[in-house]
Automatic annotation (TrEMBL):
Encoding gene (name): rplY
Complexes and interactors: Part of the 50S ribosomal subunit; part of the 5S rRNA/L5/L18/L25 subcomplex. Contacts the 5S rRNA. Binds to the 5S rRNA independently of L5 and L18.
Record NCBIfam families: bL25_bact_ctc, PRK05618.1-2, PRK05943.1
The species this protein was found in: Aureimonas altamirensis
Coiled coil spans: none
Protein name: Large ribosomal subunit protein bL25
Amino acid sequence: MSESYTVKAEAREKVGKGAARNLRRNGKVPAVIYGDKQEPLPIAIDYKETFLRLHSGGFLTTVATIEVDGKKIRVLPKDYQLDVVKDTLVHVDFLRVSAKSIVTVRVPVHFENEDEAPGIKAKNGVLNIAEHDINVHAPAEGIPDAFTVDLTGMEIGDSVHASQLKLPKGVTLVDDSDFVVASIVAPKVEVAEDDEAAEAAESTSEDDAKED
């Protein structure tokens, strides 16, 4: 699990598009804290700090502490919105969590040792990733940073299934089917070369027939 961090926030008295635009002009991002059977709490947080955390990785899988009005609230970022044109951060949603909270999150999958997979290194196979991240139920204080898949020894045609993932204690898959996470497939270039060879052979046969 990534190291937790603290965010200083201000409670928002005004909500709506006009108030939100004014916040952004002043280097803030409108956000809301919700959940735990409590009323939503509109807040404003620093734009630059939040934007950097968003792009440093693990933003949606790392629990944070928000300090607002003298209170400390444990939260998990659940969603964010970006401007479709400028790609700037527009809004963030935070979910209240506790030590006992079970949350649903998408955890990224990392692949290692491609050079140790004969199907890739020796036979020019291609790693076909079906799932770049996996949806899981996990304790809020025990969300894994990522799942690591070791490709050592894998050949063309081999697959990695969900049942092969090493799940930490308390973490379960949302989808209980044994779906394919990734597989090693034959390179498409070989198929293209075979097609070209077949076309060339067919063309040669036609030319020979014309000469006859």
